[in-house]
Specification:
With 227 residues, the protein is an alpha/beta fold. The chain is 41% helix and 20% strand. The longest helix has 15 residues.
Length: 227
């Protein structure tokens, strides 16, 4: 079972989530502050990070940014308000998904499994290695290089790029991307898509404001070029 690091300052939430995940077979390490959580990362080496946004001291957004400096560890944010502006900030800092508190353990478990599934190589009969302009996509090795240099993509960024590039020129709505990339249906949040697109453009585009690879069709969604 996946090893989970939970960084949460509310004792009742921390203990409840830890107990629920342990009952389902997860090995769980907890921390009450951002500083303690960052210290636990190297020692515990989790498969996934559950990260509260509103932490004392080093907050969840800053923790997320620091983790993303040298790791593609899947990150799920915990937030008390689904419409909070901090959600967008957290997503753009590199989080792969978020959960609104309070959440039942089965919801958290399902989201953990969905995020980890998205790291697996996509199926299909496409070539293992594809060339798109300066980008080289290795679907088997789950790597992306640009002009020969490997790009560090978060799991959600990689999955989004692989999905869009599997059907060049096809336009995908935000809801379609939520269902296929994030495995969200009905009540998916389009902010996940938009934030991930912005992060991905910053990594693969020469000029993110004038994208060649991931193009926006206003009122419809996104498609993969390259132009």
């Amino acid at each position: 079972m996946p090893r989970v690091l939970l960084i949460e300052d509310d004792p009742s939430v921390r203990e409840g989530v830890e107990l629920g995940l342990r009952r389902r077979g997860h090995e769980v390490r907890t921390a009450a502050t951002g500083e303690a959580g960052l210290a636990a990362l190297a020692e515990f080496q989790p498969d996934l990070l559950l990260l509260d946004l509103m932490l004392p001291g080093v907050n969840g957004v800053e923790v997320c940014r620091r983790v993303r400096e040298d790791s593609q560890l899947p990150i799920i944010m915990l937030t008390a308000r689904g419409d909070d502006f901090d959600v967008v900030i957290g997503l753009e800092a590199g989080a792969d998904d978020y959960i609104v508190k309070p959440a039942r353990t089965e919801v958290i478990e399902a989201r953990i499994r969905a995020v980890l599934r998205r790291m697996e190589a996509p199926g299909g009969q496409r070539p293992a290695v594809e060339q798109h302009g300066e980008l080289t996509l290795d679907r088997a090795g789950l790597t992306v290089t640009k002009d020969g240099l490997r790009l560090d993509l978060a799991p959600s960024e990689l999955r989004l790029l692989l999905h869009l590039s599997a059907a060049p020129e096809q336009v995908f709505s935000r809801q379609q991307l939520l269902e296929h990339v994030w495995e969200h249906s009905y009540h998916g949040d389009a902010r996940l898509v938009d934030a991930c697109v912005r992060r991905l453009r910053n990594k693969i585009e020469d000029v993110p404001g004038a994208p060649r690879y991931i193009q926006t069709l206003r009122g419809f969604g996104y498609r993969f070029g390259p132009l």
